Amino acid sequence: MAFFSGVVDRLLGRQQPLPQDITFRDERSFVAQKHSCPSCHAHLEAGELENNLYVCPKCGHHYRINPAERIRTLVDPGSFQEFSQEIQSVNAIGFPGYEGKLSEAKAATGQGEAVTNGTATIDGRKVVLSIMNFKFMGGSMGSVAGEKLTRALLTGLEKQLPVVVFTTSGGMRMQEGIFSLMQMAKASAAIAQLELARIPFFAVLTDPTYGGVTASFAMLGDVIIAEPGASIGFAGPRVIESTIRQKLPEGFQKSEFQLEKGFVDTIVPRTALRKTLAFLIDTHPNR
Ligand SMILES: [Zn+2]
């Protein structure tokens, strides 16, 4: 019921905040101010996180990273070529204040939308990448984010290249009502075309991945990888707890929990991601 009332709220354009437990935690500014990890409180030297792919060298906590950092830590230097950056969101349903939110997100991230596309090589293997950014309006998927993701998938189809998508999202973008929800079907249809053409699609779920993103393309990967400790689910734990009125188990919705329950295929630390993706590309040739 919570799901359907949420959909009705969105269709009517009613404001519905993200569950508190999946809002953006600014861990990086905590590290900058206190020089310690917010997870284990170990002292961190300047530059230590950056040199360790934004993973705490003491406890293994994986910090959220933006698309530029993902590219820098994953692909062969100089190989990334962005595409589809020209398409821009518009306020199609006249949602109050949407233009302002978009401008704020663009200023905060230096990017045009919540999804960044490009082709690149990973240890010499060509791939199409589509990378979400949680800092851009909670990684919410509106028409442009959905269109960019779909174009990445179709570029893989056209160029016969494997597609790797990095998800992080609170769900669909309520400011675009039904146009936002349509993106789930559009992206899923593009993945079905890749499947027919036997082109591999790998989903890498990062912290946090929620809502319609989980309910569509994030769960359609030929291999579904998760980063350690990422929160992955449909509705947030507080919403579920208040709906079923039961205490949720320890570690609920974390990658490790979702691996045990069969929602993800493997958990790969960021430090092993390049090697793992190269291995998966080699072992999933286009047929
Ligand atoms: Zn730590």
Which short descriptors sum up this protein?
single chain, 287 residues, alpha/beta, 2-enoyl-CoA Hydratase, Chain A, domain 1, seven-stranded mixed beta sheet, 11 helices, disordered N terminus, binds zinc ion
Polypeptide structure, described:
The protein is an alpha/beta fold and 287 residues long. It has a single domain, classed as 2-enoyl-CoA Hydratase, Chain A, domain 1 (Alpha-Beta Complex). The protein is 38% helix and 14% strand. Strand 5, helix 8 and strand 6 form a beta-alpha-beta unit. Helix 6 runs parallel beside helix 7. The longest helix is centred in the middle third of the chain and has 20 residues. The N and C termini lie far apart (43 Å). The N terminus is likely disordered. Bound molecules: zinc ion. Zinc ion binds next to loops.
Helix and strand content put the structural class at alpha/beta
Q: Please report which band the strand proportion falls in: under 5%, 5-15%, 15-25%, 25-35%, 35-45% or over 45%.
A: 5-15%
Please give the share of residues in helix: 25-40%
The domain tally reads 1
Distance between the termini: 43 Å
User: What do we call the CATH homologous superfamily?
Assistant: 2-enoyl-CoA Hydratase, Chain A, domain 1
The average pLDDT is: 90
Distinct small-molecule ligands in the complex: zinc ion
